[in-house]
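Batch job 17 of 40 flagged for manual review because the log was empty.
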Amino acid sequence: MPSATRPTLVARAAVALALWVTMAGTTVPTPLYPLYQHAFGFTPFTVTVVFAVYALGVVAGLLTLGRLSDRIGRRPVLAGALLLAAAAAGLFEAADSLPWLLTARVVSGLSAALITGSATAALLDLAAPDRRQHAQTLALAANMGGLACGTLIAGALAQWAGSPLRLPWTVMLALTAAALLGLLAVPETVPRGGSGPEEAAAGQAGSRFRLRLQPLRVPAAIRPAFLRAALAGGSGFAVLGVLTAVSGLFLATVLDIHNRALTGLVVCLAFAATAVGQLLARVLPAPRALPTACAGLVAAAALIATALLTESLTPLLLGACVNGLATGTAVGTGLGAINTGVAPQQRGEAVSTFFAILYTMLSVPVVGVGVLIQLAGLRTAGLVFSALVAALALGAAAGLARRPATAHPREA
């Protein structure tokens, strides 16, 4: 593995920048949704659909392109992800109707699916064996930091600069161009023709990549731990999705606060806390990590319900932070179970299955909330949703309580 020379440090920084920029672009629309709603005459339900199709793009990308960088190399996939991110930004900047927004969101989801695995793998490739944990932390910081900063940057620009539906995308295009230039400093770390486990097993290194669906599969050895972590993490992702889609609507219609920067801050806090939660999963004792996450999800649901009932901002901010911590802990626990309990040749399938579940939970409940908003109003929809999240978290906790006392596999 390369030593920590100056070129290697520059290469790591370039890969991290590519990951940060791409993920930032996926959350830029968050504080802009109320503006799109006003400009194009959307209903709240339409806003939730526009948000949800992003997750469909992510899941489709994970299931078809999740191992692409193992076959054709890291740099081409990183470049492809950045080009898709630039295409999405261009579509958003030119958007004048709903089809443009839907297309941009799907393209944005595909870019996120491509960059997440390839950038993380590239950072691991560039790290010395004793620095792998540091590389994983850097990947986490770039990923979640991008998600947090995208909404914050867009909110600030929309609030205090002109052209709120154009300028944030111009900034993102400039950042994406800089990230593409940075890839010139990144060496290719995958041998020509690829070296994925399937090729090695079949003696077909160098075989041509074929686009196909990757099967969703949960290895039997970790199935109980996997499903509990997926249920808890998915519950938290559902809250993240709803916060991302309707925070601006809540602030405007319930609190009468029309501040785009504040909308960005709410979602920024949630994603930043999610990153901290994933780090927390590394240090919590394994038997305590998932119960702690479940308790946090119930507390977050209670705080969000309190914000709705009392029409108060403080419980919403606290709920976003607590939900992020709990979600990150659950996700970290699930990934830990996969890393320690699954054979290397099965990890790709297991990780793809895990994130397919999470992103499905990110999107489907949001659309349900949109329907409820249409039928019963935002407050009722939010209270019903909070109750369902708490019930799911309690269900995951009940599954933990039913485990045999001696069964404490390493889950984090």
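Reviewer: the log was empty due to a logging misconfiguration, but the result itself is present. The first helix runs from residue 6 to 27. Unflagging and moving on to job 18.
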